Amino acid sequence: MVIKRDLYLNKLINKKHNGLIKVITGLRRCGKSYLLFQLFKSHLMEEGTDRKHIIEIAFDAFENKRYQDPYVLMPYLKEQITDSEMYYVLLDEVQLLGEFESVLNSLIRMENVDVYVTGSNARFLSKDVITEFRGRGDEIHMYPLSFSEFMSVYSGSKQDGWNEYMLYGGLPLVLRFQNPEEKIQFLKSLFEETYISDIVGRYKVRNRAELEDLLNILSSGIGSLTNPTKLSATFRSVKQKTISKTTIGNYIDYLCDSFLIDRAVRYDIKGRKYIDTPVKYYFTDMGLRNARLNFRQLEETHTMENVIFNELKIRGFNVDVGVIVHNSTDSNGKNIRKQLEIDFVCNKGSRRYYIQSAYAMPDQEKMEQEQRSLMLTGDAFKKIIITKEIPAPYYNDDGVLVMSIYDFLLNSNSLEQ
């Protein structure tokens, strides 16, 4: 099965020969190795690159274990570089290479060497990975399959595909399994044996059970406003455990740095300032989130919101939660101050979109409820409501673009229409 990942392939192609180390980061098993060794390598071959000028090493392969020693690897690479033509060095699981930072910095000093690397353990996936290369790294961040990528290889209807995607997520390896039980077992095993073990090992987490309990709480509350103080209180009331907010904050940072979860900070639209706490957390892959909860709590409203957040991040937007402070008076003339919310404020360059996720809008009352905060922004940026199913995108009488989740996800230019 060939899954096109053109968004990331084109980014790699555009970064060729820029003098920097191209570092592919992302959640484990999201397709980084496939992108590098299959898709990008095929591009180089199609462009006429001599096979001898493509040097590829997967450090986790048994036959390549000797190359994990930098004093073996460097002489080998220099032996392969025999002329002045451009060489492409593709290194997979580079964190297994001893002194890999020094090796990579040495490689990019060679004028005819272009370096591309991936890594998959918690250390390498840390978001500060680029600093390891002292300003000489160029990051390409990769996500699990978007819904559009998923549907490119799915044989059923978009409605059936949506149900599968919501339940099992977008990790490419999940598509290899036909049986639901196999998919569930794979995701649960991957979470336990790979992601959690990596985090525990890297950060020397003493109490794995606490970390797992926190994951369960965050999984149950995707899209809910929270902070370490609230979570610490939840541990006391629900788990009868005392965990400091500092420890919880550290755990959350570990999960974010490993790309298991992402956060959306609140932004005061009229005040033009960020509100530090509370924030919302979303899972990078819904299959992993569901596996964490043994495939219970499958509320489609929250799932849809999470998928929209991930899609916006995939498209390169900075995504915040919008807050609008609205002052009014009641029937008795008493002043009322409310904080209204816009699910997502999306920014990219000079473009901004306000987006509400509304699973169902059965009547005009619900429409007005969903768009109330949108109408109070006081600016002319596009306002959008994404719902489950409508026949086709349309602008309502208030100028709000209403579209289905399918139109949003399957058209990369959906926000511009």
Distance between the termini: 32 Å
Percent in helix: 25-40%
Strand order of the largest sheet: 6-8-7-9-10-11-12-14-13
Overall mean confidence score, pLDDT: 92
Radius of gyration based on Cα positions: 23 Å
- In this structure, how is the largest beta sheet organized? 9 strands, mixed
Explain what the structure shows.
The protein is of the alpha/beta class. It is 39% helix and 23% strand. It contains 15 helices and 14 strands. The strands form 2 sheets. A 9-stranded mixed beta sheet has the order 6-8-7-9-10-11-12-14-13. Strands 2-3-4-1-5 form a 5-stranded parallel beta sheet, with helices on both faces. A hairpin with a 5-residue loop joins strand 9 and strand 10. Helix 1 (6-14) crosses helix 2 (32-46) and helix 8 crosses helix 12. It is globular. 35% of the residues are buried. The model has no long low-confidence stretch (mean pLDDT 92).
Descriptors for this entry?
five-stranded parallel β-sheet; alpha/beta; 417 residues; nine-stranded mixed β-sheet
Explain the layout of strands and helices.
Layout: H1 6-14, E1 21-26, H2 32-46, E2 54-58, H3 70-80, E3 87-92, H4 100-107, E4 113-118, H5 122-125, E5 137-142, H6 147-151, H7 158-168, H8 180-203, H9 208-220, E6 225-226, H10 228-239, H11 245-257, E7 261-268, E8 273-283, H12 286-292, H13 300-314, E9 318-329, E10 335-348, E11 351-357, H14 364-371, E12 382-387, E13 394-395, E14 401-404, H15 405-410
Parallel strand pairs: 1-4, 1-5, 2-3, 3-4, 7-9, 11-12, 12-14
Antiparallel strand pairs: 6-8, 7-8, 9-10, 10-11, 13-14
Helix pairs in contact: 1-2, 7-12, 8-12, 10-11
